[in-house]
């Protein structure tokens, strides 16, 4: 029996360590019900301790303050307790890769703050629970971004009630279950979705046409089901990159022409779906197309892949079709694999000598080396450089195919090697081998030592930490296999660590634990000091999609590059200036024209602040926001590189300086675009952003006169204590400034709404916000007479919109402007309501609306599925246990 003093020591140690996480340290046994006594616990991470077995105790429901519960890759069995629904503060629940059985507890629907739900890779059965009059269900999780329920034994239909327009889901992953019935039409209501995986079930019926509403989905996998009827027309899904409809029971049909309209498509898989006719050549003109897999159909005629996409196209697999001829058979680029085996073209005399008629095994991608055979001892492995050693081996399993270019492993191998070498690790080479890219997305990885035949304990631990924190290719899971030779270890240290979790008390244990914590803290202090001195030290300027943090669609430029792109900042390239500094036009080697904003001295920030702003701007993507292309932080220079918007500012258009004439309908659409961009900043950016300087000079018009909001992050970012909103230090512009600001000295999202109201009045009148000392808001307010035509505003309406067109919706537009410029912020609408008002207004007068919404983005994922690393140690390193950092889990909400 423990003394009370011993119990307190154990309790305190367990609390501190568990809060920092205890992943993969070799814990064994059962999780005691005593865990429920840790009432202050906020984070519990016991992931990848495969020796942790037995059921999850129902006392887990006593941890009322728990925010994150991470039990990935343990050996838990039994049912998930209903009491898990008591954890009302929980935002992250990850129970995947265990052996849980039974139904999904409906009580999970009570977790109203949950953003991440991962129950994949268990043995859960029964139906997907939805709420009823007496029970909760998953349909109640309106804040949840991820539904990961794949690789279970779930049965029954996907309930139509599961999905609604109020949800914020981005990932729905239900693959490899026993689900039947139709895909619910309500799925099309969840406009935020980016990934849908329903493959390997028994779904039947028609594919609902409502899927075309999912304009943000990049990956749609419906293969290996029993879907029927006509092939779905998915024209509206213009963000699709990866489409797999293979092995279903669709009606016989010609090749669907709408596929050629999917401008972002990289991989098309439609095996065994009874396709007929010819493949249009313009399919192969899609700019990003890489893989076309259409085997086992009845496609015929002449295959013509054209000449427009020789750079990206890698595979065209038409095995077992009816192709008669091949247009490019004498002019086939070496980088493209064409497979026409079992087609009529390959039955001609001598055809088997042609490369496209030979048998192919596209999964056999293990690198062929020229090393001498049998040059290593029995248990060693040859590296790609013909050096014998004991590599760390394991598997990478990708959650979605478009996150990794499946046939080109070279870029990831190179990136991993550079990452390891940047940490001075003795890594000689990295080898990735595809296992089954079309179905499991599984890759074998081998990491070989340099200058020695094995890694020592410290090197292995560091490698594990790096793999655990990489985000360049996430989401994936990494599970190690063979880890190299056994080393002589003292097993007592492992036993002592286990006792930390189960309650042993020893003076030596306490000293060991405290020493470990001290060393960890010292290391973190040193890392923070290095980070402060060189905040961009771990960003490789030559790579745009790696390092920490991950920049989305943005890269770092050197000062030398910027000088070259701007002709040494020549006067000819100087296109203006603003509060941040001068703006230069630049041309990148790709031909893309960019706008480069060069900070003047008084606009410059500290390195860490500038870095934080880059991270924020790089993950804010929307059609109606000016996109960040990159940045430069060098030689005391701070520069932001944006997309170039050719038609200038709205102000220039309204004043006639740009020569652009804005019709009434075009002005309404400009207002809608600007409102959508602003609403995205307020409600869908993470964290939300208050612009604080909305004005016609900060609304740009592209070549199609689409409005793009600019300058929403060009000053020091600060955190609003009340709303946790990031806002800039710019205090607005006279005439647009919220009247509340003069008393509160604070700008809020309703301040942006006020400025937007002024912007509407500018669109109507083409007058400046303050003209000859008169405020446009006061002028309109004093002139309005709702009993008269056009509210009696004839004299102040811009003459350019009065001639030749009726001003349909004018009165509603004026009403909306006046709501936005109410003196009190509480009386103004939210920007999302403004968007809806303008959309309704346009529809009521019969104007065409595009399908974009506030949440439409050019970015695939607001939250990335970060990589989670497991180390299940087999021979010959099986006596060792080294932990992977769980910082990536704790940082989840910072990843966008």
TrEMBL record:
Residues 569-842 form the Protein kinase domain. GO terms for molecular function: ATP binding; protein kinase activity; protein serine/threonine kinase activity. CDD domains: STKc_IRAK (cd14066). Its EC number is 2.7.11.1. SMART domains: S_TKc. InterPro entries: Kinase-like_dom_sf, Leu-rich_rpt, LRR_dom_sf, Prot_kinase_dom, Protein_kinase_ATP_BS, Ser-Thr/Tyr_kinase_cat_dom, Ser/Thr_kinase_AS. GO terms for cellular component: membrane. Keywords: ATP-binding, Glycoprotein, Kinase, Leucine-rich repeat, Membrane, Nucleotide-binding, Receptor, Repeat, Serine/threonine-protein kinase, Signal, Transferase, Transmembrane, Transmembrane helix. Pfam families: LRR_1, PK_Tyr_Ser-Thr. One of its GO terms (biological process) is regulation of innate immune response. It is a single-pass type I membrane protein. This is non-specific serine/threonine protein kinase. It comes from Glycine max.
């Amino acid at each position: 029996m423990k003394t009370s003093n011993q119990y307190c020591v154990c309790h305190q140690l367990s609390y501190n360590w568990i809060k920092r996480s205890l992943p993969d340290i070799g814990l064994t046994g059962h999780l005691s019900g005593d865990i429920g006594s840790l009432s202050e616990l906020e984070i519990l991470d016991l992931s990848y301790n495969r020796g942790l077995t037995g059921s999850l105790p129902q006392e887990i429901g006593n941890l009322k303050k728990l925010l994150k519960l991470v039990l990935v890759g343990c050996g838990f069995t039994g049912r998930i307790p209903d009491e898990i629904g008591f954890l009302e503060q929980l935002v992250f629940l990850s129970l995947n890769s265990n052996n849980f059985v039974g139904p999904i507890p409906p009580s999970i629907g009570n977790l109203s703050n949950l953003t991440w739900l991962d129950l994949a890779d268990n043995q859960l059965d029964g139906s997907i629970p939805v709420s009823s009059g007496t029970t909760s269900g998953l349909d109640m999780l309106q804040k949840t971004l991820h539904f990961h329920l794949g690789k279970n034994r779930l049965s029954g239909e996907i309930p139509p009630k599961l999905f609604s327009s109020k949800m914020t889901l981005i990932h729905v992953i239900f693959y490899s279950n026993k689900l039947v019935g139709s895909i619910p039409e309500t799925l099309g209501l969840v406009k935020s979705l980016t990934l849908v995986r329903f493959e390997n079930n028994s779904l039947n019926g028609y594919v609902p046409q409502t899927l075309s509403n999912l304009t943000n989905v990049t990956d749609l996998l419906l293969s290996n089901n029993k879907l029927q009827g006509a092939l779905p027309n998915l024209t509206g899904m213009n963000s699709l990159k990866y489409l797999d409809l293979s092995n279903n029971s669709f009606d016989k049909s010609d090749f669907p022409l709408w596929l050629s309209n999917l401008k972002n498509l990289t991989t098309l898989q439609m095996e065994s779906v009874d396709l007929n006719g010819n493949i249009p050549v313009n399919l192969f003109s899609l700019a990003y197309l890489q893989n076309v897999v259409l085997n086992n159909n009845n496609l015929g005629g002449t295959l013509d892949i054209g000449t427009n996409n020789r750079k990206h196209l890698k595979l065209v697999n038409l095995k077992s079709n009816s192709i008669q001829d091949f247009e490019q058979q004498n002019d086939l680029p070496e980088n493209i694999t064409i497979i026409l085996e079992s087609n009529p073209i390959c039955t001609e005399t001598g055809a088997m000598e042609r490369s496209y008629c030979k048998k192919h095994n596209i999964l056999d991608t293990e690198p062929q080396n020229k090393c001498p055979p049998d040059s290593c001892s029995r248990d060693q492995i040859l590296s790609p450089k013909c050096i014998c050693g004991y590599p760390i081996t394991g598997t990478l399993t990708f959650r979605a195919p478009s996150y990794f270019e499946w046939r080109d492993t070279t870029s990831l191998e190179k990136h991993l090697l550079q990452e390891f070498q940047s940490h001075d690790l003795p890594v000689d080479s990295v080898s990735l081998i595809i296992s089954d890219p079309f179905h499991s997305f599984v890759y074998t990885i081998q990491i070989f030592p340099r200058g020695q035949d094995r890694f020592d304990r410290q090197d292995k631990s560091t490698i594990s930490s790096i793999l655990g924190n990489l985000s360049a290719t996430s989401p994936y899971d990494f599970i190690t296999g063979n880890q190299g030779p056994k080393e002589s270890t003292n097993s007592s240290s492992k036993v002592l660590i286990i006792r930390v979790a189960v309650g042993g008390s020893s003076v030596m244990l306490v000293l060991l634990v405290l020493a470990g914590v001290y060393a960890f803290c010292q290391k973190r202090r040193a890392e923070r000091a290095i980070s402060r001195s060189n905040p961009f030290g771990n960003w490789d300027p030559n790579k745009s999609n790696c390092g920490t943090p991950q920049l989305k669609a943005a890269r770092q430029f050197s000062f030398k590059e910027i000088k070259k792109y701007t002709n040494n900042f020549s006067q000819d390239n100087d296109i203006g200036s603003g509060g941040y500094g001068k703006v230069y036009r630049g041309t990148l080697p790709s031909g893309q024209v960019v706008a480069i904003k060069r900070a003047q001295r008084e606009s410059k920030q500290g390195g860490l602040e500038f870095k934080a702003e880059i991270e924020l701007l790089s993950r804010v993507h929307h059609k109606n926001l000016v996109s960040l292309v990159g940045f430069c932080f060098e030689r005391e220079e701070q520069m932001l590189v944006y997309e170039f918007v050719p038609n200038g500012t709205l102000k220039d258009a309204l004043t006639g300086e740009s020569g652009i004439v804005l019709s009434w309908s075009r002005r309404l659409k400009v207002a809608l675009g600007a409102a959508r961009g602003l609403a995205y900043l307020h409600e869908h950016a993470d964290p939300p952003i208050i612009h604080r300087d909305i004005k016609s000079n900060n609304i740009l018009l592209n070549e199609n006169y689409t409005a793009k909001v600019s300058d929403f992050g060009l000053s020091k970012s600060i955190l609003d204590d009340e709303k946790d909103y990031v806002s800039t230090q710019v205090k607005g512009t006279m005439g647009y400034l919220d009247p509340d600001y003069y008393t509160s000295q604070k700008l809020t999202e309703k301040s942006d709404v006020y400025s937007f109201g002024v912007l509407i009045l500018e669109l109507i009148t083409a007058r400046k916000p303050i003209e000859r000392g008169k405020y446009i808001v006061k002028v309109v307010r004093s002139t309005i007479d709702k009993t008269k035509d056009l509210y009696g505003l004839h004299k102040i309406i811009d003459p350019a919109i009065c001639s030749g067109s009726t001003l349909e919706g004018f009165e509603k537009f004026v009403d909306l402007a006046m709501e936005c410029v109410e003196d009190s912020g509480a009386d103004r609408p939210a920007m999302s309501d403004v968007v809806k008002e303008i959309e309704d207004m346009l529809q009521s007068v019969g104007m065409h609306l595009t399908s974009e919404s506030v949440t439409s983005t050019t970015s695939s994922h607001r939250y990335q599925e970060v990589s989670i690393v497991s180390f299940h140690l087999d021979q010959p390193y099986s006596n060792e246990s080294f932990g992977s950092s769980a910082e990536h889990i704790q940082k989840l909400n910072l990843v966008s």
